[in-house]
Amino acid sequence: MKNITVIGVGYVGLVTGTCFADMGNRVVCLDVNEERIAHLKQNIMPIYEPGLEEMVRRNVSASRLSFTTSYEEALNNPEAPAELVFVAVGTPEGVDGEADLRYVRAVAESVAEVVDHPIIIVNKSTVPVGTGDWVADVVMHRQANAMSFSVVSNPEFLREGSAISDFLNPDRIVLGSLDRSAAEAVAQLYFPLRAPIMITDLRTAEMIKYASNAFLATKISFINEIANICEALGADVKEVAVGMGYDKRIGRAFLDAGLGYGGSCFPKDVSALTHMANVQGKHPQMLQAVMQINDDQRRSVVSKARELAGGLIGKTVGILGLAFKPNTDDIRESPGIDLVHMFQEAGAVVKAYDPVAMLNAARVLKDVKLCEDSYDLAQGCDVVVLATEWNEFKNLDLDRVRREMRLPIFIDGRNLYDPALMYGAGFVYRGLGRGYGQVTANGPTNNHSARNGASQPVVNWNGRNAAVARK
Ligand SMILES: NC(=O)c1ccc[n+]([C@@H]2O[C@H](COP(=O)([O-])OP(=O)(O)OC[C@H]3O[C@@H](n4cnc5c(N)ncnc54)[C@H](O)[C@@H]3O)[C@@H](O)[C@H]2O)c1
């Protein structure tokens, strides 16, 4: 059993602290956000993560997990002085794409000023290469009493929505330090997980995280580029991805064409890596292209909607899904939120619905009607865009959705639906890269839908209640 302090109770810190407690350690989680800590003391979760609430409650009851806003209490409890201090504060995108390290600095300064015994500082936040050395400098210069300490980089690879399972079943644990014994002490903590543990130097560990995220983002942009080519040539990117994925050298993961990556990690991490490269005089052309393709995916959906609806000014557009992915309430860099803003800028009236992220969305969206459910959203819409692949969007009552809509235009930003099914239900349907032609007054320009036994409905755009006729 180790005495652990985790600093920052966000998506990473709260999961990390709770899982370490569940593994039998004594964990104190600290945050400067007083409301978050007050809520956690009442077992109210600051984030939505499946399974987390029960796990927090169980470990609090077993006295292995507690919460505080006090650095003194978190670090210097005489009965259980912190041995390992995990840093899991945010590192958002700053100026010019650079990672903003103000929270990491604040933590390093607070720890240095307060701690009264030797510790190992373990950095879980995603930080630019060289930050570990910089943190060591900050602590050294800020220490009230000269205490020995070591810095270890331990990048986190969990995914929101499956964070607990990812934390407890990692593909690998990466530890980087100039102090091998400190890295080995952290490794011991992870032994029960029976995962491969890699010990390297600080900068290499920091780089592994950026390179991993940049690679995954690249896979997403790659398949989105292929999707655009598929669309032009009449191929179906979903089947192309399956066909590619059987190849073990390629793999099936992260080959889902759609609205592109979002969330609190990929966008800022690709930007930060690009910035690091630029500062060194390198030319990260591939990373630039990855970001550009990602931005274009959102824009292409707005263009599709404009074309199908015959303009967007005064049209009503419904966005299904505001979380950046399913099973989280995180809306940071979410495609759904971006689309709300883009459709508003294009002159549309926008409605939105998400099963879990409505509260977070309400804080950032203006002049949007937030709806009760998918059918409330569909009511009066000219266009519905499916932006997040929540389970509850996978089996919508399609007849009901179409009946509620003014025009039956459904743009599937996640390629969840079978085009033939959607045509059959009377929608003017578009996925991304699904290979069928543009709808004209005479119907689709290729025979893809006919091949699937259902023809694309033809829409007469004259008048509010456009007639939908089968071809
Ligand atoms: N979210 C993910 O899926 C994920 C996955 C892997 C890595 N990461 C990385 O982990 C880090 C944390 O990400 P997150 O999504 O958990 O962030 P978050 O924004 O959800 O949480 C950060 C927390 O840190 C707290 N904080 C800020 N300054 C503080 C201070 N001085 N002292 C104590 N607490 C402070 C904030 O109040 C907040 O509660 C980031 O670097 C991120 O890139 C995130």
Walkthrough of the structure:
The protein starts with a strand and ends with a strand. Strand 4 (84-87), helix 5 (102-114) and strand 5 form a beta-alpha-beta unit. The protein is 42% helix and 15% strand. The chain has two domains: 3-200, NAD(P)-binding Rossmann-like Domain (Rossmann fold), CATH 3.40.50; 290-469, Rossmann fold, CATH 3.40.50. The protein is globular, with a radius of gyration of 25 Å. An eight-stranded mixed beta sheet has the order 3-2-1-4-5-6-7-8, sandwiched between helices. Strands 11-10-9-12-13-14 form a six-stranded parallel beta sheet. Strands 15-16 form a two-stranded antiparallel ribbon. The protein has helices at residues 11-22, 34-41, 52-61, 71-75, 102-114, 131-142, 163-168, 180-190, 202-233, 237-245, 266-279, 285-309, 335-345, 358-364, 374-378, 398-404, 419-424, 448-451; strands spanning 3-7, 26-30, 65-68, 84-87, 119-123, 149-153, 173-177, 197-200, 316-320, 349-353, 368-370, 383-386, 409-412, 428-430, 439-440, 443-444, 458-459, 468-469. It has 18 helices and 18 strands. Helix 1 packs across helix 3 (52-61). With 471 residues, it is an alpha/beta fold. Bound molecules: nicotinamide-adenine-dinucleotide.
The CATH superfamily of the largest domain appears as NAD(P)-binding Rossmann-like Domain
CA gyration radius, whole angstroms:
25 Å
The stretches of 5 or more residues where confidence is low (pLDDT under 50) are 437-455, 457-471
Mean pLDDT figure? 93
**What count of structural domains?**
2
Number of helices: 18
State the total count of DSSP E strands.
Answer: 18
Secondary structural class = alpha/beta
Widest sheet: strand order? 3-2-1-4-5-6-7-8
User: What spatial form do the alpha-carbon principal axes imply?
Assistant: globular
At CATH level 3, the topology of the largest domain is: Rossmann fold
What small molecules accompany the polymer chains? nicotinamide-adenine-dinucleotide
Biggest sheet, in brief?
Answer: 8 strands, mixed
Q: What is the CATH architecture term of the largest domain?
A: 3-Layer(aba) Sandwich
The CATH class of the largest domain, by name, is Alpha Beta
Percent of residues in beta strands:
5-15%
